[in-house]
From TrEMBL:
Signal peptide extent: 1-25
Pfam family, one: Peptidase_S10
UniProt source species: Rhodanobacter glycinis
Alphabetically ordered keywords of this record: Carboxypeptidase, Glycoprotein, Hydrolase, Protease, Signal
Protein name: Carboxypeptidase C (Cathepsin A)
């Protein structure tokens, strides 16, 4: 499994190929081919309904936005034209053919787009991902004050195997066609292309937002659309992105795995003390880049430096000095999440270490239960999305909705270049288009996709003209920092700058 989802279960990537599945736009006048796809492929699945629409409104910044919601599907075809999958999307549009349109994908692999949709940027929101939320609370949708709909149309894409999207081939073939790092990018890029063609929006300004593993997808989709399908993104927003899987490798020699997480652990400690600010974090980031890194590289050759480093890490994290000493100043994430709340009998979440839950196995040598946030968000997001799609919008389908598919994650295949991440595609996309702007947003407390990784990645990029074209911003909170009202407001302010909105 990939780190963002794998760690949460302990606790949570281009050249066009001739054999790559292609996606063809659905024909509004001939829906039968899509509706009969399940039976035609021998799976005897209930047919997907035709696209459904409903008109809604929301209040944002004192004004009412009236918009159309569309839930529908697009077919994925193989090289012989046979439908091998159906991808479901949820689109929010307002009048105007030349309004910007933003495509949104989440991560996992195996996550639907519900988290961005009903948590971050869609016009309606369900509460999840913060302290005090419980799975059994009513999954009530309310107006989202942080929606982006005021300045862009929104299209949320559920990859195959997530949401209601489905493969029409067996698991072995689906892994080859969809559940691998390269084919995933190619068919999702074609979904973006086909939605634009189907809706007559090729001339609209186009943007992409990806969260978590969707942040891994973001630069690759942008590059593939630019260079293979002829669709250029004007801007990319990556939220808590998983850009470089290889950065966490070789923890026995490389200082990088420990450098990536120490600042987020220190941020969580500052937040618990009510002292978390940008100013307070800067010296911690500087220490991590310099003294901490060099001390780790020296190893046992400099005992005095190691002792000083262990004392400093103890101060930064607020952890027991003996625990830090026995850890060698290298604070392993899951061990930390147990240790910091051990006296309370609780666990911290990898996604926001200051969100906790009871530890049902406090005396086990290792954490035996799932992540507090991950376990708690499945029920509200699933309930809210199923009711919204089937009842409010009226896309009448009784199949299972997968907010998070562990099956897809289990079947996932890494291609040869997966460990290289998507940093190369990020650089190439920015180099190809001098107008492309990228915003990378992280929560200070996120230990799943820590902000330090993106800081190091962007600092190593050539400026390529305006160095501010690629920016990293940090916000209070964790992986889903947008669940906090104040952090969401700060994010919207930064996103509006990228879109050129006052």
């Amino acid at each position: 499994m990939h780190k963002p989802l794998q760690a949460a279960l302990l606790a949570a990537l281009i050249i066009a190929g001739l054999q790559t599945p292609s996606v063809l736009a659905a024909d509004n006048h001939h829906p039968a081919a899509t509706q009969d796809a399940g039976s035609a492929n021998g799976f005897n699945l209930p047919a997907f309904p035709a696209d459904a629409h409903v008109t809604q409104s929301t209040r944002v910044d004192g004004r009412t936005l009236k918009y159309t919601v569309t839930v529908g599907s697009l077919p994925v075809r193989d090289e012989k034209g046979k439908i091998i999958a159906q991808v479901v999307f949820t689109a929010y549009t307002m009048p105007g053919k030349h309004r910007p349109v933003t495509f949104a994908v989440n991560g996992g692999p195996g996550a639907s787009s519900v988290y961005l949709n009903l948590g971050a940027i869609g016009p309606k929101k369900v509460d999840f991902g913060v302290a005090g939320d419980t799975p059994s609370e009513p999954a009530t949708l309310h107006d989202n004050p942080g929606t982006w709909l005021g300045f862009t149309d929104l299209v949320f894409i559920d990859p195959v195997g997530t949401g209601y999207s489905r493969a029409l081939v067996d698991d072995k073939q689906a892994t080859k066609d969809f559940y691998s790092t390269d084919t995933d990018i190619k068919y999702l890029s074609r979904i973006v292309y086909d939605w634009l063609v189907k809706n007559g929006r090729m001339e609209s300004p186009k943007y992409l937002v990806g969260e978590s593993y969707g942040g891994f997808r973001g630069p690759r989709i942008t590059d593939y659309l630019q260079t293979q399908l002829g669709v250029a993104m004007k801007g990319v927003v990556l939220l808590s992105p998983y850009l470089d899987p290889g950065a966490s490798d070789d923890e026995n020699v490389s200082p990088l795995p420990w450098m990536l997480t120490l600042p987020s652990i220190a941020a969580a400690h500052l937040e618990r003390e009510g002292k978390l600010t940008d100013a307070a974090m800067q010296p911690i980031i500087d220490y991590t880049r310099t003294t901490y890194a060099s001390t780790l590289m020296q190893g046992r050759s400099n005992p005095a430096a190691t002792a000083a480093m262990i004392q400093k890490v103890t101060e930064l994290t607020g952890l027991d000095p003996t625990f830090v000493k026995r850890s060698g100043g290298r604070i392993e994430t899951q061990a930390y999440l147990r240790e910091v709340y051990r006296a309370e009998g609780k666990l911290g979440s990898r996604y926001d270490s200051n969100v906790t839950a009871w530890d049902p196995f406090p005396y086990a040598p290792h954490q035996r239960t799932g992540d507090p946030i991950l376990n708690g968000i499945i029920a509200p997001t699933t309930t809210a999305m199923v009711n919204f799609v089937t009842q409010t919008v009226g896309w009448k389908f009784d199949g299972r909705y997968n907010a998070l598919s562990y099956k897809v994650n289990r079947l996932w295949h890494e291609d040869d270049d997966a460990r290289d991440g998507s940093v190369s595609q990020l650089r190439e996309s920015v180099a190809n288009d001098p107008n492309l702007r990228v915003l990378i947003g992280h929560g200070w407390d996120d230990l799943s996709c820590p902000f330090m990784a993106s800081l190091l990645i962007v600092d190593q990029m050539p400026a390529m003209g305006d160095p501010n074209r690629v920016q990293v911003k940090e916000y209070p909170g964790g992986h889903m920092f947008y669940a906090r009202k104040d952090s969401q407001a700060l994010l919207v302010k930064d996103v509006k700058k990228l879109y050129g909105v006052n």
